[in-house]
Amino acid sequence: MLDVYERTSPKPNISDMNLINNEYGIMLAFVRACAMKGTELMISDIGKEPPQNSSWYVLVAKAHMGKTPVETKKRSHVDYAFGWNIYTMRVMGLWPEEKMINPTENLKVLTAVFFIFSFGSLPQTVNLFFVWGDFDLVVENLAMDNVFCTITIMKAIVFWLNGKTLKGLLNSMEEDRKEATREEDVKRMMMAARNSRKISIMVNIISHSIFVIYIIMHLATNYPNVRGLYYQSYFPWETKPSPNYELIFLGQMMSAYYSTLTSTLVDTFVAALLLHVCGQLTNLKHELINFQSETKKEFHRKLGRIVKKHDYLNEFTETVENCFNMMLLIQMFGCTVTLCLESFQSLESLAGEKDKYFLLEIGCTVFYVCYILIQLYLYCYVGEKLLSESTGIADAAYECEWFNLSPNEAKCLILIMRRARSPLRITAGKFCSFNHELFSEVRIRKCQRFTDLFKSQINSKSINPF
């Protein structure tokens, strides 16, 4: 901007420097806004008509730009990676803090757990005793929200109990970003952070869409005629009269919203942590591939830093694994059961009488099944990526210029290759690792077995689903 003024403006007459000093107070605000923001001249911001010669502004700008640096507040790497999840988790009281006992945050978590338990899990579980003889009602009870609400309560409690540990991991993420000085390393870290943001946005949109669609479906199918509840539950009082019905329906809506939101937040949070590890492993691979040293002292210094970084990433992943492996085991089992029950309900809907809301109900079921599959695939995706990136460390050690090292120095790389042969994993209760193979096993084989069982149940009722 200053170059343009110098080319287009006449030469300034600076013989009278007192004039510049007298006008300095008038022009300073204008120069700062013009020179530092790069905007057009805004005379209204000065409060006084500027001199006709625009080179006066160039003169003052050159004299004072170096004395008035603009300080820009850098956005936290954690804030960028987790995106709007930060604000939602703070509203829910789930954002990790150093102290586990925090009255304000604990009240938020307990409020969510109260709604999920009081209007979701407990009434549906009690209702099982009253419908136990009816196979279809039992399936509807378990498939709708009972299993999902129970798992969500468990996830909220596990996440809250590990808040201090997770806060330490977030601090480590910030330190990793500060230590990254090379442009290539920063780009790879930001790519992992962008992937975390995209995943959180996508999963949040899907979860909120399911919540809205189910409200529309229930209001369209149950409210006008039978004043049915959001999901079948037992309450020790009359539910149809007003305002009992409206209050219970509102409580169940809050329960469904809290359970959907809590489950989504926990899943995307864990995925973001593991994607950060994947980004760090990618940086470590490139550093190992480009490993060079001129002296023996430099070799040991660089290699020691690589080994420490590799060990740190192993501990980071192990911490996440220890915090959530039992939770993931229960969630995987719950997802499998829910998929099977929803498949059975879909078959029954196709086999039974079709009303005017048939397509809406089938659409909601399909949408809900897709959401459950996305939940499961999210862990399988990050687990597969973690597996491939961690095993790639051994390949990176082989691809470096080890042939230019001395025999003793080259042997040191064997330790890294040997350690990398035990890949980093995220498991379901230490029983199985999350990867693409596990997703295929749950999605295809187990669901097929349960579907065959439910088909035989339908045939025993002399119903032809096709």
Please write out the topology.
Elements: H1 2-8, H2 17-37, H3 55-64, H4 77-82, H5 85-92, H6 103-130, H7 135-161, H8 163-179, H9 183-221, H10 244-289, H11 296-351, H12 358-399, H13 407-420, E1 427-428, E2 432-433, H14 436-460
Antiparallel strand pairs: 1-2
Helix pairs in contact: 2-3, 5-10, 6-7, 6-10, 7-10, 7-11, 9-10, 9-12, 10-11, 10-12, 11-12, 11-14, 12-13, 12-14
Transmembrane segments: 109-130, 142-161, 199-220, 256-278, 357-379
Family: Belongs to the insect chemoreceptor superfamily. Heteromeric odorant receptor channel (TC 1.A.69) family.
Organism: Vespula maculifrons
Give an overview in words.
By secondary structure, the protein is mainly alpha-helical. 74% of the residues lie in helices and 1% in strands. The chain has helices spanning 2-8, 17-37, 55-64, 77-82, 85-92, 103-130, 135-161, 163-179, 183-221, 244-289, 296-351, 358-399, 407-420, 436-460, and strands spanning 427-428, 432-433. It has a two-stranded antiparallel sheet. α6 (103-130) packs across α10 (244-289). Keywords: Cell membrane, Membrane, Olfaction, Receptor, Sensory transduction, Transducer, Transmembrane, Transmembrane helix. It is a multi-pass membrane protein. Its main location: membrane.
